Each structure stands twice: as structure tokens, then as C-alpha cells.
Automatic annotation (TrEMBL):
Protein name: ASTRA-associated protein 1
Protein's job: Component of the ASTRA complex involved in chromatin remodeling.
InterPro entries tied to this protein: WD40/YVTN_repeat-like_dom_sf, WD40_repeat_CS, WD40_repeat_dom_sf, WD40_rpt
Entries under PANTHER family matching the protein: GUANINE NUCLEOTIDE-BINDING PROTEIN SUBUNIT BETA-LIKE PROTEIN 1, TRANSDUCIN BETA-LIKE 3
Keyword Transcription applies: no
Pfam families in the cross-refs: WD40
Domain of life: Eukaryota
WD repeats: 12-53, 405-420
Keywords linked to the UniProt accession: Repeat, WD repeat
Subunit structure: Component of the ASTRA chromatin remodeling machinery complex.
Family classification: Belongs to the WD repeat ASA1 family.
Key word Secreted present: no
Length: 420
């Protein structure tokens, strides 16, 4: 007897509006979700219940990342919130769908976490921001690493601004090519390409006309005068319709693109050596005609083996990063899906690792100054754990080790899948 189609492990209900952003963090203990009404929900993956709910913005959220954590929304604000374990205690857990009052009244009933930073950015493009460490070779320390953030320029719809946190300054600007118009910036991906001897900042941008451009920056962005310049090293007309999403593979040598057309393409990023030879034609290593238009929300799992897309047809599709072969079609949502997210895979933790003598396996901890941190606290191992505590700890560890794939849709629901 053949196995039936995959079904979600859990459905998280609570948003009333379409979900445009999902993000696993805190060693997969928490899932952050945000919708087109600006509501933010932090879910515990052990209990599958909300631990914090607040109205983060007056318009839809386009992206969530943790640094602390930042969000870019259509009210032209990028905000950084402090959300430690002790901060969750004072926040409400009543979900937007459970509120029987008006939106304004419901928002006023939900206190906000501490707002660390707020910057004005352009979000009319519906383009999510991209962020990376300012110095990739900076040794780990107690201080929070400075971040670079790429987002569309406010006046030049084809231009891109680079901001720095925590200074909140714009430190660089990439102007659009007036001789070769591309339309609006639709997606950006900012990262460092590093070798043993050099490191260079790379920006991949997708545009309204289906074009993709790769630029590198030569110089030091940390200087107040923004010394250095951006150089276009490769470009191509990858799609016939606007780019919907870009996703970098963990190896930082390849990236994926999806569009309003039915193609998903995989590209090799020009090396630092090739960048000195001037602009070249960017050619896709593999291009897959999925025959399904409108796949967005590209996300790649941290082990670089699979990636997922959210489809306008309500389907979540999983593909192999190596072969681009379609591995699974996940059917549950009745309306369009807009976002996907993978939980991080820790290769040092065995899939069946569990609590031994009341002590959970070790895992990488977050910086104490980080805005998003785990809600669970490990008890002093010198004190014996009660049976209830051990069960709770086991549940939390099981949730952290699960290979979650989350998908958010127009229906305001989040499907959690445990596959691959």
C-alpha cells in the first residue's frame, strides 16, 4: 500500500491577515510570524502556543530577521526590538483572531517590547531587506556585531541603499542605470564572499523586468565617507516576469531565483578573481520550468540540501538544491502561500539525541545581548529535575531537533511540516 500524501504536523492559527514573513530562531525554540496588518506573533515550538503578540507596525510586514531582530514593512520603517526571556513576561498572548474589538483598540491592549532602533526606509517596492555582518572576520565576542542592511532607495526605485546598525546611518548608495532601465528593485541579497586571503561584499539584486545583477564593493564601508565603489560584475535577463525572491545557498557560491513566471534558476556567483575582469553575462547553471507561475518566498535549509517555495496556487514545493528536482508538493492551504522558512539543522546533534539524566544535549547559545533569545532556561544541573520538568525539557529538545518547514498563507494560517 502506497503511503498517502504528506500532511502538516501542526497548524498554527491566530492571524487574521495574510502571513508574509516567518523566521525560526533561538535554536529553533521559537517561530516569529508577521502578517499584512502589522501583527507580530512569537510562537513556542514546544507548546505550539503564542508567547508574545503585539502590533509591530501599521502596515504589512515583509521580512523578519534576528540580530537582535529587524522587520521591514510597508509603513516605511525598519524596527529592531529587544525580546529576551524576561521581556516576554510583560507581553500579551491574545492572538489577533481572538480579539473582539476594533484593530486600533486591540493594538492598544497589547504592549510592545522595547524598541531599540527605528529607521525610515522605502517599502513601496514590496522588497524585503537583506542583512549581513559588517565584518565577517570579526572574532566572536560579547558585543553585538554591527550589521549591514540593503533595501530599495526611497527616491530611485531602481536604486539600493546600504544602512548600518546600530548607527542607523546610510553608508552607501547604488544608483539605478539610467541607460538601461530595469524597473523597481524586487529582491536583494547581501553577503560576504570570503577566501583565505580576501573578503568582498557582494549584492545580488532582482528587478521588475526579470533581470538579475551581481555587484561587488571594493573599499571599506566602515569609513564615515563610504570610501570605495560598487562594481557590476555580472547580469542577465533571468526571467520574463518580475523577480519575486532570491535565496543564497549556505556555501555562498550559488544563489536561487524565482519569479512571477514558472522558472526557478540556480546561478554560480562570480569569484573574487573574476570580479576584476569587468561585467560579464550571468548564466544559470540550472533552470527548472516548474509549470507553476508565481512561486515566491524562497528559503534554503541551513545544510544546503533542499529549498522550498510558496506558490500562488496554495502549494508549498520542496526541491533538491543539487539537482533542482522537485521532491515534494505539500498541499494544505486552500489559497495562495507567500512565505516559507526552515528551522536550522545542527549537524552536531544526532536526530535521536535526547535528555540524559535530566540534562539536555549542549547546543550553541545566543549572545545575552541579542534581542531574540530562547524562552527556556536550563536549570542548574546540580539540582534534580522533577518528572514534569524532565517532560517539559524533553518536549523542548524534540522541538529544537525537528526538521521544521513552515509555510504562511493568505488564509492567515501557518502549516508546520516535518519532512526530510
Amino acid at each position: 500500500m502506497e503511503p498517502g500524501p504528506p500532511v502538516p504536523a501542526y497548524i498554527l492559527r491566530g492571524h487574521e491577515a495574510a502571513i508574509h514573513a516567518l523566521h525560526f530562531y533561538a535554536n529553533n525554540a521559537l517561530l516569529a510570524s508577521a502578517d499584512s496588518d502589522g501583527w507580530m506573533v512569537i510562537w513556542s515550538l514546544s507548546s505550539k502556543r503564542p508567547v508574545a503578540v503585539w502590533k509591530a507596525h501599521e502596515a504589512g510586514v515583509l521580512q523578519i530577521k534576528h540580530w537582535t531582530t529587524a522587520r521591514l514593512v510597508r509603513d516605511h520603517k525598519l524596527r529592531v526590538w529587544q525580546l529576551r526571556h524576561e521581556d516576554l513576561v510583560g507581553l500579551r498572548t491574545k492572538l489577533p483572531a481572538d480579539s473582539d474589538s476594533s484593530t486600533a483598540a486591540a493594538a492598544s491592549d497589547h504592549p510592545h517590547p522595547w524598541l531599540l532602533h527605528s529607521m525610515s526606509v522605502n517599502a513601496l517596492n514590496f522588497c524585503a531587506f537583506s542583512m549581513c555582518d559588517q565584518d565577517p572576520r570579526r572574532p566572536a565576542s560579547g558585543a553585538v556585531a554591527a550589521q549591514l542592511i540593503a533595501s530599495p532607495n526611497g527616491l530611485d526605485s531602481g536604486g539600493i541603499d546600504i544602512f548600518q546598525l546600530p548607527s542607523e546611518r546610510r553608508i552607501s548608495q547604488i544608483r539605478s542605470d539610467k541607460n538601461n532601465p530595469t524597473g523597481m528593485v524586487m529582491a536583494v541579497c547581501l553577503f560576504h564572499q570570503t577566501t583565505e586571503t580576501a573578503s568582498q561584499l557582494v549584492l545580488v539584486a532582482g528587478y521588475e523586468d526579470g533581470r538579475i545583477t551581481v555587484l561587488t564593493h571594493a573599499g571599506d564601508l566602515s569609513n564615515p565617507d563610504g570610501s570605495g565603489r560598487w562594481q557590476k560584475v555580472a547580469s542577465c535577463k533571468a526571467h520574463t516576469q518580475p523577480i519575486l525572491s532570491l535565496a543564497m545557498l549556505p556555501c555562498k557560491t550559488h544563489f536561487l531565483s524565482s519569479s512571477a513566471d514558472s522558472l526557478i534558476s540556480k546561478f554560480c556567483i562570480p569569484s573574487l578573481v573574476d570580479a576584476d575582469d569587468g561585467s560579464k553575462d550571468l548564466k544559470s547553471e540550472k533552470s527548472l520550468n516548474t509549470k507553476h507561475s508565481g512561486q515566491q518566498g524562497l528559503s534554503v535549509r541551513s545544510d544546503g540540501k533542499i529549498f522550498a517555495t510558496a506558490g500562488w496556487d496554495g502549494r508549498v514545493r520542496v526541491y533538491s538544491c543539487k539537482t533542482m528536482k522537485e521532491l515534494a508538493v505539500l498541499k494544505w492551504h486552500k489559497v495562495g502561500c507567500y512565505s516559507t522558512a526552515f528551522a536550522s539543522i545542527d549537524p552536531t546533534v544526532a536526530p535521536d539525541a535526547g535528555v540524559v539524566d535530566g540534562v539536555p544535549p549542549s547546543s550553541a547559545s545566543l549572545d545575552g545581548n541579542a534581542a531574540l533569545s530562547s524562552i527556556s532556561t536550563t536549570k542548574d544541573i546540580s539540582q534534580p529535575m522533577s518528572a514534569l520538568d524532565m517532560i517539559k525539557q524533553q518536549r523542548e529538545e524534540n522541538a529544537r531537533r525537528t526538521h521544521w518547514l513552515g509555510a504562511g498563507g493568505k488564509d492567515g494560517k501557518i502549516s508546520l511540516w516535518d519532512i526530510y
